[in-house]
Automatic annotation (TrEMBL), chain A:
One of the GO BP terms on file: pyruvate decarboxylation to acetyl-CoA
Keywords, sorted A to Z: Oxidoreductase, Pyruvate, Thiamine pyrophosphate
Ranges annotated as spanning the membrane: none
Keyword Oxidoreductase part of the UniProt annotation: yes
Listed name of the protein: Pyruvate dehydrogenase E1 component subunit alpha
UniProt xrefs under SUPFAM superfamilies: Thiamin diphosphate-binding fold (THDP-binding)
Recorded catalytic activity of this chain's protein: N(6)-[(R)-lipoyl]-L-lysyl-[protein] + pyruvate + H(+) = N(6)-[(R)-S(8)-acetyldihydrolipoyl]-L-lysyl-[protein] + CO2
Xref: NCBIfam families: PDH_E1_alph_y
GO molecular function: pyruvate dehydrogenase (acetyl-transferring) activity
EC numbers on record: 1.2.4.1
Length: 364, 336
């Protein structure tokens, strides 16, 4: 159903060096139902990734996004796939939002051939260039200048599109953010710096790492907006607003006030530096999926049972994708040496003798 | 016809910018100032501020922006005023540029050139005098080129810009003002050199000398002195540090049976160490003498003229090492 619907954001936007957009957000029943389904999918996917990790099917690092879903969903609703997105290592849901599939996610997590990076990237390195997703970066803060570079290229190519560079409140204190922002402002780059403030940089509370945790104000001469990052419609409104602003006037900072239910990564239980009450309080009062559920029910767009059915369907989709991913083969051993360079440019690869032997022993 | 290395680099940039609108130049003082070393002279006027961009003195920021632009498909040429300053941005060169094609399984290629003067300059002290060839050449995903002559500078820079992978292009400040003869072929705008191929600058049969950048010149001088004493030295100009032209080096050693490696960088884990390993792996049985390795002294670069001279390879060091490799007597005082 596409009848327009106007809904007020949970809280007003707070602005810095600009006039805040309206709290009334245009949406449709169709959009709200798709928000519900997509966020439920993300939530289920991350819970499943947690189990796979604990079953030792996922190696290394794994950073989960549950709690922050409204940012990925709302952002996509406010922009198009011609706009670019780049983020840090908490990237599973951003990838899904850009049109990636559950099979690609789970296969990549398990290091299989059907992964979005054919098993060569892992949890932190998801990409989908054909819909403007440039990763998936493991070094805190590095994605911010990279994102400004994407915006530079968009402006250089006269594409009339923008880049959203996402980072956490931990990365907000990185020096390279200020270097890149200065250049972006000097050159009027269509870059939107999105600080996903989940209030803890790893295990350090924001106020212990930032002299001023008002991240939307920290661009000084760059306009900023503080957004309820648990409200997908507010995120959508803010991203639309920021895109328009960036195309006309250059960079902008969006601070998304959000929350991660999981610890920073799988090795962090997430309970030593914050209380269980704090976490359950957010779940009860601000959960992004529950907010959309309530809106749908309040406007009689679906029944409680219909929403439960969606959640059941989503659970099955996730289970099916995991089953399929488990059947996906490991990458071919020969893939070890592909993609170091773009093909066909005559670069010899030095095979150290032990590698040569192990390849020969196993596969000749 | 003669051409200065500076002009060779400038003309290569000019021609590649003219041929491909995706190529742009960014860095400190590359525009209005015409380049700290005048490599970008005239380019701002010709291509405008959209394609010749003066940056603030913030390497991490502008290098990251360059790499991001390459992700999107542009072909940035990022100038470092010297490679010493690339240390502020080495994370973007290695983690953001070199690894992306691999991590994304070929989705995100990074056609970018990082260029600028590298190696020991004169009298500028430890923080501005260092060779980064071995550092960058140890990283898979990067290509590392280092030109000596004007022919090298033109052909290799054009190759670097046309290449779809990230290339670290190590120039030398002390060569910018040197002139070299260039052929009509080298001056043609289609001229380009292959990446990964060394050049035999001087043929010889008694001893192989490998060198790159400014040291090639010293090695050629040493070869002349050696010739007068009856030693025929083959001088290999590496041109490409990664990929390293192992086959040309090994073929030469199999012919001369002796090897002297020369570089300005620190000795430990250096370019010479890698060449030595390659020769020992592939041509061990052909060696008639221990490999001689000449490198910069294992110290931060001193300022005082006499100490600085001692810290970088000199022609007489090369001559002496080549003689030792050929079992010619070397005066005791000099050998010590």
């Amino acid at each position: 159903d596409t009848t327009p619907l106007t809904i007020e954001t949970s809280v007003p936007f707070t602005s810095h060096q600009c006039e805040a957009p309206s709290r009334s957000v245009e949406t449709t029943p169709k959009e709200l139902l798709s928000f519900f389904r997509q966020m439920a999918t993300m939530r289920r996917m991350e819970i499943a990734a947690d189990s796979l990790y604990k079953a030792k099917l996922v190696r290394g690092f794994c950073h989960l996004y549950d709690g922050q879903e409204a940012v990925a969903i709302g952002m996509e609703a406010g922009i198009t796939k011609k706009d670019s997105i780049i983020t840090a290592y908490r990237d599973h849901c951003t990838f899904l939002g850009r049109g990636g599939t559950l099979l690609e996610v789970f296969s990549e997590l398990m290091g299989r051939k059907d992964g979005c990076s054919h098993g060569k990237g892992g949890s932190m390195h998801f990409y989908k260039k054909d819909s403007g997703f440039y990763g998936g970066h493991g070094i805190v803060g590095a994605q911010i200048p990279l994102g400004c570079g994407l915006a530079f290229a968009q402006k250089y190519s006269k594409d009339e599109t923008v880049t959203f560079a996402l980072y956490g409140d931990g990365a907000a204190n990185q020096g390279q953010l200020f270097e890149a922002l200065n250049i972006a402002a000097l050159w009027d780059l269509p870059a939107i710096l999105v600080c996903e403030n989940n209030h803890y940089g790893m295990g350090t509370a924001e106020w212990r790492a930032a002299k001023s945790p008002s991240y939307y104000k920290r661009g000084d001469y760059v306009p900023g907006l503080k957004v309820d990052g648990m409200d997908a419609l507010a995120v959508k409104q803010a991203c639309k607003f920021a895109k328009e602003h960036a195309l006309k006037n250059g960079p902008m900072i969006l601070e998304m006030d959000t929350y991660r239910y999981h610890g920073h990564s799988m090795s962090d239980p997430g309970s030593t530096y914050r209380t269980r009450d704090e976490i359950s309080g957010v779940r009860q009062e601000r959960d992004p999926i529950e907010r959309i559920r309530k809106l749908i029910l309040a406007h009689d767009l679906a029944t409680e049972k219909e929403l439960k059915d969606i959640e059941k369907e989503v659970r099955k989709e996730v289970d099916d994708a995991i089953a399929k991913a488990k059947e996906s083969p490991m990458p071919e051993p020969s893939e070890l040496f592909t993609n170091v360079y773009v093909k066909g440019y005559g670069v010899e690869i030095v095979l150290m003798s032990h590698v040569r032997e192990s390849l020969a022993l196993k596969y000749c | 016809k003669q051409m200065m290395v500076r002009e060779a680099l400038n003309s290569a940039l000019d021609e590649e910018m003219s041929a491909d609108p995706k190529v742009f130049l960014m860095g400190e003082e590359v525009g209005e100032y015409q380049g700290a070393y005048k490599i970008s002279k005239g380019l701002l006027e010709k291509y405008g501020p959209e394609r010749v961009l003066d940056t603030p003195i913030t390497e991490a920021g502008f290098t990251g922006i360059g790499v991001g632009a390459a992700y999107y498909g542009l072909k940035p040429v990022v100038e470092f005023m010297t490679f010493n300053f690339s240390m502020q941005a080495i994370d973007h060169i290695i983690n953001s540029a070199a690894k992306s094609n691999y991590m994304s399984s070929g989705q995100i290629s990074v056609p970018i050139v990082f260029r600028g003067p590298n190696g020991a300059a004169a009298g500028v002290g430890a923080q501005h005098s260092q060779c980064y060839a071995a550092w960058y050449a140890s990283v898979p995903g990067l290509k590392v080129l280092s030109p000596y002559s004007s022919e090298d500078a033109r052909g290799l820079l054009k190759a670097a810009i046309r290449d779809p992978d990230p290339v670290v292009f190590l120039e030398n400040e002390l060569l910018y003002g040197e002139s070299f003869p260039v052929s009509a072929e080298v001056l043609d705008s289609s001229f380009c050199l292959p990446i990964g191929k060394a050049k035999i600058e001087r043929e010889g049969k008694d001893v192989t000398i490998t060198a790159f950048s400014k040291i090639v010149g010293l090695s050629l001088k040493a070869a002349e002195i050696l010739a007068k004493e009856g030693i025929s030295a083959e001088v290999i100009n590496l041109r490409s540090i990664r990929p390293l032209d192992r086959s040309t080096i090994n073929a030469s050693v199999r012919k001369t049976n002796r090897l002297v490696t020369v570089e300005e960088g620190f000795p430990q884990h250096g370019v010479g160490a890698e060449i030595c390993a390659s020769v020992i792996e592939e041509s061990f049985g052909y060696l008639d003498a221990p490999v001689e390795r000449i490198a910069g002294a294992d110290v931060p670069m001193p300022y005082a003229a006499n100490l600085e001279r001692m810290a970088v390879p000199q022609v007489e060091d090369i001559v002496r090492a080549a003689k030792r490799a050929c079992y010619r007597s070397v005066p005791m005082a000099a050998a010590a």
